[in-house]
Specification:
119 residues, alpha+beta, Translation Initiation Factor Eif1, 2 domains, 5-stranded mixed beta sheet, globular
Amino acid sequence: MIKSLGSGPVYSTDRGRMCPFCARPVRECVCRLPGSVPKGDGWVRVRRETKGRGGKAVTVIHGVPLGAEELAAFAKQLKHSLSTGGTAKDGNIELQGDHRDKVVQALKARGWKVKLAGG
């Protein structure tokens, strides 16, 4: 049974982080199978964030049509090519620093539609 978004707990002190869709612990989630590709509108969005990061700029890439493992591998490739740190979490890739122009070129080279989001 799939619940609507926000209808269940997102964290439990007994079981940890909870899936908002199936209300099970994330490690036991049945609604989001590993390797499944998140659905979106077909656009990959690249934005720069500083909020909550002590004024440091972070490039966030959202909407990449890859599964979890492929997203992590692509993030590793981007980090290596840009000589920076970062992570792939929650379906996003976060890169340390402002690398929007270079990231847009790399994403377009792979054939994805790319938009610069935010200000």
